[in-house]
Amino acid sequence: xxxxxxxxxxxxxxxxxxxxxxxxxxxxxxxxxxxxxxxxxxxxxxxxxxxxxxxxxxxxxxxxxxxxxxxxxxxxxxxxxxxxxxxxxxxxxxxxxxxxxxxxxxxxxxxxxxxxxxxxxxxxxxxxxxxxxxxxxxxxxxxxxxxxxxxxxxxxxxxxxxxxxxxxxxxxxxxxxxxxxxxxxxxxxxxxxxxxxxxxxxxxxxxxxxxxxxxxxxxxxxxxxxxxxxxxxxxxxxxxxxxxxxxxxxxxxxxxxxxxxxxxxxxxxxxxxxxxxxxxxxxxxxxxxxxxxxxxxxxxxxxxxxxxxxxxxxxxxxxxxxxxxxxxxxxxxxxxxxxxxxxxxxxxxxxxxxxxxxxxxxxxxxxxxxxxxxxxxxxxxxxxxxxxxxxxxxxxxxxxxxxxxxxxxxxxxxxxxxxxxxxxxxxxxxxx
Length: 432
Description:
Blueprint: H1 12-21, H2 49-52, E1 54-55, H3 62-71, E2 84-86, E3 89-91, E4 95-100, H4 108-121, E5 125-127, H5 131-135, H6 166-174, E6 184-188, H7 190-194, H8 197-202, H9 208-212, E7 216-221, E8 233-236, H10 238-244, E9 249-251, E10 260-263, H11 271-284, E11 289-294, H12 300-310, E12 314-318, H13 339-346, E13 354-357, H14 363-371, E14 376-379, H15 381-389, H16 394-412, E15 426-427
Parallel strand pairs: 4-5, 4-14, 5-6, 6-7, 7-11, 11-12, 12-13, 13-14
Antiparallel strand pairs: 1-15, 2-3, 8-10, 9-10
Helix pairs in contact: 1-15, 1-16, 4-6, 4-15, 4-16, 11-12, 14-16, 15-16
């Protein structure tokens, strides 16, 4: 989970501190109160366009006056309501857990712990691509036979189910989900389509509670921010590569001979293909929500308009700052639009439900994204780091800190819900 070359540093130590300390991490150390003066210090390390922007509260706050009249008292930051509709789901915060696929960083017990904590928080979660072709779907409940499609080389998960498989993650999430909150989105890549992943999930009794409560979505993926224009990539040893040669592109020479590069096909999209894909999703899976994930391409605004017109419930845009399990060095910091540029291009006609991801880990970056048109922000690496720090409470504490920061920031802008934010709340040095 280290950062790619030439990309702004991801503050892993700070994320881990938030996973340990919770809401207290939103402030300086309480022991320094009365002994240290605090002020505007320059940000440490390189910044991207979104980091360089600032939130700018007005002096006159008409919305605060309305809230005062409604409450019969001066409003406080804890009067900010963060419950948000996300792609047909209801979330406790304007936050979702973004797609985590087949790599080992998102699998095993860590993947199950992440699923459980996201569910307890009432946050929607995306299961990423290639889980079924690589690890199997997970129908078997007994001891596994290594190498079979439904029984990969992984340990049995707690309470039955396979910890790295899609079904294992689905069960872990659904088993902890509170009434009325959250929802699960399942991605499908070209190889997933060959494995009929959406058909497997849609027809599985384990997914029935999610379907019956309107909390299942399928996400059509056109690409990701870390390597726009390419498909998923992982590193295999030669034994594992032999098992996947019929499903993926393999290059034994690319990594020097000791390892094999496994590549998914990126898929081919035109406006008409995207429209037809969404129509097929609507027709074949009428009870599931339809999400579409776009990479940060130069025509991202046009692609978003096509997806919305065809009936997508949510459009996800993964900025070039987004992380991944593996990518060519040349892509990090050099290919794809930064998230701030994506938001600017989408501003003229934003999708009704725009979800964005890319280095999300603290409240200011999230609130700026919401003010620039996003409905919610996605936690990827930050969620994994938090759960790795504490498999029982790490993401929960991290979310407590994030929620407190968001309430403080939204309240400081004189507003009391994320959907009240707008572009006037953000100042950009590029535009002044």
